[in-house]
Amino acid sequence: MSSCKHIDLVLADDLERDRFLGEYAAVKRFVLRASTRDKLQCGMTCHTCREVCRGATFICLSGGCTYVGCWNGGHFQEHTQGGHRLGVNAQNGLVFCFECVDYVAGCETLDIAGVPWDSAMSKQVSLPTSLRRDGLYGLLNLGSTCFMSSILQSLIHNTYIQYWFLNSGHARRCALRDPSSCISCALDRIISECYGSLSERNDHAGFLSLLTCSWKINQNFAGYSQQDAHEFLQFLLNQLHCDYKRERQVDEDKEVRSSSSQLCHCIVHSSFQGTLRSSIVCPECQDDSKTMLDPFLDLSLDIKGQRTLYDCLDSFHRREQLHDFDYHCPRCQTSRDPIKQLTIERLAPTLVLQLKRFEHLTSGQNVKLNDPVQFPLHLDMSRYCTGGEPTTSIVYRLSGVVSHSGTVNEGHYTAVLQLNSGEWFKFNDSMISVVSAEDVLREQAYLLLYTVEQVAATA
């Protein structure tokens, strides 16, 4: 930080000085006092590339200009070619001179000048305006943490998770109330930061706490090496369930005693758990008395040789003849090789599908499968449910895609999510950008998140 001859020239002219100080006071007040959501939309979205938090962003201070430009994309630097060389950092309120390429030490004198703030001053200054978009909250990459960020964004924008935490589903029952020791507390903090419901904000404190807590619980996530996003999703959902049991141990015991067939009432199982029906079927009489019901939070689908998501689901549910299987039909007494059949007994409100892109070879080598798999915006799951010919239409809407680019050892995760407004946004660590539905369908999906949209009887 140094003195700046360019700002000295501005302050030397009384008329220009008053204009400049008025604009600076208004912009600085906005930067320091506005909600996180307003800052993201009005002060941290580059007007050129529309990226959010792409490095530092600056608000122009030249003669009523409301341009906001990013540093990483070089767009504010391009803007200065028109003579607009001074900008305010949208995160800390400091003035930066792009001619000197340094922050201005004279910011202290600007504070001392102390131009009073009132409604008249606010009317003289035109700040960038934009539609408020709840939940647009980038997460810093703290060293190969993109696998965490992509999953957290997916949970933050899940309707059921969102509603649970914003209505204090966890906070009012937790005895720990410590984000560094309780995953649910940390996620509660992140969602509060994301939707601006904290009276005192410390941006990214929730993410740091969740990182710390994850490392304490599972040391496999410690350090700065890339991890698997699917494994982290399973870890998070399991921890949310464990936190629920810890909070409600007495109530949970009562529930189990009163109705052992009841599903767990935690937010995870209420939102994500389905039931898979695995049947061993006699090839002669079709007896399926050897049937098991298994809960699932996601389905893992093979993608080799499959062109579409429906192909993957068809393969998953395809009848398979079992060889070298000790089988004796209890009804017709045959010992022929039986048939294994998987169907879905119960679907969850949120359906998570993993496309198995990582393969472990017999040689011990891990490889990534880059096979393109087409997936729809609307998914009809009727034909995969128990009961043969479907009498009910069960349609899911695509709500999120977690993608992986790169190789097994050097890759990067991003999330593309649909917000309540219907718009699609790409979350790339701290950067957020608007994307089209066509862009979404071109993603190399690793995890697909679908939300139930319609359950109706067919004609």
Short description:
This protein is α+β, with helices and mostly antiparallel strands.
Mean pLDDT: 81
**Can you tell me the CATH superfamily of the largest domain?**
Cysteine proteinases
User: Which regions contain 5 or more consecutive residues with pLDDT less than 50?
Assistant: 111-133, 252-261
For the biggest sheet, the summary is: 8 strands, mixed
- Structure classification: alpha+beta
Gap from first CA to last CA: 72 Å
What do you see in this structure?
The chain is α+β, with helices and mostly antiparallel strands. The chain has 3 domains: 5-122, Zinc/RING finger domain, C3HC4 (zinc finger) (Herpes Virus-1), CATH 3.30.40; 145-246, no CATH class; 298-457, Cysteine proteinases (Cathepsin B, Chain A, Alpha-Beta Complex), CATH 3.90.70. 32% of the residues lie in helices and 23% in strands. It is built from 15 helices and 19 strands. Strands 8, 11, 14, 15, 16, 17, 18 and 19 form an 8-stranded mixed sheet that branches. A hairpin with a 4-residue loop joins strand 15 and strand 16 (411-418). The longest helix is centred in the N-terminal third of the chain and has 20 residues, at 14-33. Mean pLDDT is 81; it is low at 111-133 and 252-261.
